[in-house]
Write a structure and sequence with these properties.
The chain has about 600 residues and is of the alpha+beta class. It has a domain of about 150 residues. Helix content is about 55%, strand content about 10%. It has a 5-stranded mixed beta barrel with strand order 4-5-12-7-6. Strand 4 and strand 5 form a beta hairpin. Helix 5 packs across helix 8, helix 8 runs antiparallel to helix 9 and helix 13 packs parallel to helix 16. It is globular and about 80 Å long. The chain binds flavin-adenine dinucleotide. Flavin-adenine dinucleotide binds next to strand 3, strand 5 and helix 12. Belongs to the acyl-CoA dehydrogenase family.
């Protein structure tokens, strides 16, 4: 079993040779950093992920948390990992020095977090949820809320959750029923039930800060009536110290296919005792606040899917080099030595596909993280605005593409192992089970497709789309070698067809054919996603082709050749699969729309 979580050479290539992350140190916010400090923090993350997270990944999967005598019992290693992550400063890694943070760029923090998820997605869930919840309070909370909760969350004393989903309202948050009744004391009484809340109960931290969506009595119907509340498990005093129990309780633990180390909880609010909630920001703006944080969460999900795919690829690559089986098809001598399975072209196909999906997904998510950096720290205001628009447009793709193709990579990893891959003796089946969550949570991929085709493409008169095309042009023009130019041409031709199809879909939407047009939104997401990831591969190929000429060792030449071959795989084997999407979208195929429930 390999202990490589993410290939450090690849990560350095993507961060510095493709994206020029070092240039961020020229910005005021990151001026105290250098490539050395970025590398040092990445080194710490890699080491800690191996020592404190990977060490119990399999054990936490086999021995999942239990509800015993009103307490959640879990492996002590989970707390040790959480505490180590907090003590190393990662919880506040992206925040300013004023909040005790390291003021690291999103791109570097995302890379660091990649190691933790690759090592143990279940345990990594607790700190990631905590930072996301803390970020909501940091941006939208009032001073009192920040004083009471932020320091304790960023130090790891308290954890956080995101409590949106209800038994009858998952994709359709407009229909949530949890209610909030104002009191004369300034707080609200929360009543209702939430389900699937990750980290909703655990035995790691002194307190849990739930970020809860609820509707204030008399609020407008639908999403316009949703407000956001802080609901602590234990009440806190003015200094943020925990006191009496609040009326939020664990109704049950949910048992899952994967991600078993993260508790999944059904929570009840206000059933056994009054449950106090504290309004964040303005009433009825809750979903808007949540959605402003969704970019972060969705990039996180995409990143997780890419790196779990990556982890399975690393395992199966090592296995394929060791496992001896069969001979070349042309070898007739049965007494000749058997070859490692990596010598079979079909096994290389499966490894190349994994490499293309996981390194392509990683490139996409790092690009998304860089857009976040540009949105907040680019010195040019115009560029900040443009980065925000690009990020908004690409968020459904960054969430959905890796979460579609990460599990596909894991499926291929199982296949590379043969029978061994199907057993629990080897790690790749757990990778697949863990990764299978990613197309479901943070908005299913079906919902991402609707968001992309129904909203994001048309926002601001499609300004985001125009910016995207301009960005792509830069890399299309930068292709210099014959190989790269050929791929640039394929990408450019596919792009032109996609633009035409987009225009015709736009006309249908304008003409009121909403259901018909959006019926094939998933095809559009696949088309769009594959175009974007082809672009990511072109960027990598351009950088590799340029560096290859001056590479001064076999390992460097092999690295760049590997990048070019994986790019070739993507352009020869993957990009052409969008032809089917183009046909279905062009014809506005109505097979699914017109199928009747009674005909099944
Ligand atoms: C392990 C796990 C952890 C989770 N963690 C959290 C958490 O921490 N906090 C939290 O709040 N939630 C959490 N969730 C909930 C998660 O976000 C929801 O499961 C998800 O949003 C889907 O909602 P649902 O399960 O109700 O499915 P449904 O909404 O019932 O969807 C079922 C199917 O119908 C499709 N569908 C639904 N509506 C439409 C539509 N309008 N058009 C087309 N297709 C549609 C969906 O794409 C899906 O395929 C978690 C879920 C899991 C499994």
């Amino acid at each position: 079993m390999t202990d490589t979580l993410i290939d450090r050479r690849d990560l350095a290539f993507q961060l510095y040779e493709v994206m020029d992350t070092e240039a961020l140190t020229q910005r005021e916010r990151f001026s105290e950093h250098s490539k050395d400090t970025f590398d040092a923090v990445i080194e710490t993350a890699d080491k800690m992920a191996k020592e404190k997270f990977a060490n119990h990944n399999s054990a936490a999967d086999k021995d999942e948390p239990k509800f015993v005598n009103g307490q959640v019992e879990m492996l002590p290693d989970v707390k040790q990992a959480f505490d180590a992550y907090a003590e190393a400063g990662f919880l506040a890694g992206r925040y300013g020095y004023d909040l005790g943070g390291m003021q690291l760029p999103e791109s570097v923090m995302a890379a660091c977090n990649g190691f933790f998820t690759a090592a143990n997605p279940g345990t990594a869930g607790y700190p990631f949820l905590t930072t996301a919840a803390a970020n909501l309070i940091r941006v939208f909370g009032n001073e009192e809320q920040k004083t009471k909760f932020l320091p304790n969350m960023l130090s790891g004393r308290y954890s956080g959750t995101m409590a949106l989903t209800e038994p009858h309202a998952g994709s359709s948050l407009a229909d949530i029923r949890t209610s909030a009744t104002p009191t004369d004391d300034g707080h609200y009484l929360i009543k209702g039930a939430k389900i699937y809340i990750s980290g909703g109960e655990q035995s790691i931290t002194e307190n849990i800060v739930h970020m809860v969506l609820a509707k204030i009595k008399g609020a407008p119907a639908g999403v316009k009536g949703i407000s956001l509340f802080i609901v602590p498990k234990f009440h806190v005093d003015e200094n943020g110290n925990p006191g009496e129990r609040n009326g939020v309780s664990l109704a049950g633990l949910i048992h899952k296919l994967g991600y078993r180390g993260t508790t999944s909880t059904a929570l009840s609010f206000g059933d056994d005792a009054p449950c106090h909630g504290y309004l964040v920001g303005e009433p009825h703006q809750g979903l808007k606040y949540m959605f402003q944080m969704m970019n972060e969460a969705r990039i996180g999900v995409g990143f997780g899917a890419a790196v779990i795919g990556y982890r399975g690829y690393m395992h199966s690559l090592e296995y394929a080099k060791d496992r001896l089986q069969g001979r070349k098809a042309s070898e007739k001598n049965p007494e000749s030595p058997q070859v490692p399975i990596i010598d079979h072209a079909d096994v290389r196909r499966m490894l190349l596909a994994q490499k293309a999906y996981s390194e392509g997904g990683l490139a996409l998510c790092l690009y998304g993280a860089r857009l976040m950096d540009d949105q907040h720290t680019h010195p040019d205001e115009q560029k900040r605005m443009e980065a925000g628009k690009l990020l908004d447009l690409l968020t459904p793709v960054i969430k959905a593409w890796p979460s579609e193709f990460g599990p596909k990579a894991n499926d291929l990893a199982i296949q590379v192992y043969g029978g061994a891959g199907y057993t629990r003796e080897y790690p790749v089946e757990q990778c697949w089970r863990d990764n299978r969550l990613n197309p479901i949570h943070e908005g299913t991929n079906g919902i991402q497709a609707l968001d992309l085709l129904g909203r994001k493409i048309w926002q601001d008169q499609s300004h985001g789309l125009q910016l995207l095309m301009q960005e792509m042009q830069v890399d299309l023009q930068a292709a210099t070698t014959d190989r790269c130019q050929q791929w640039a041409l394929s990408l450019s031709e596919t792009l032109q067809q996609a633009v035409k199809v987009t225009q015709s879909l736009g006309k249908s939407l304008m003409g009121g054919e909403v259901d018909k047009t959006l019926a094939n939104a998933s095809c559009y997401l696949h088309l769009f996603g594959h175009i974007i990831v082809s672009w990511m591969w072109l960027r990598q190929a351009n950088a590799a082709a340029n560096a290859l000429a001056s590479a001064n060792s076999d390992s460097e030449r092999n690295f760049y050749q590997g990048k070019l071959q994986a790019a070739q795989y993507f352009f020869h084997w993957e990009l052409p699969t969008v032809a089917q999407d183009l046909v279905l979208l062009r014809n506005q195929d109505d097979t699914c729309l017109n199928m009747k429930a009674d005909w099944f």
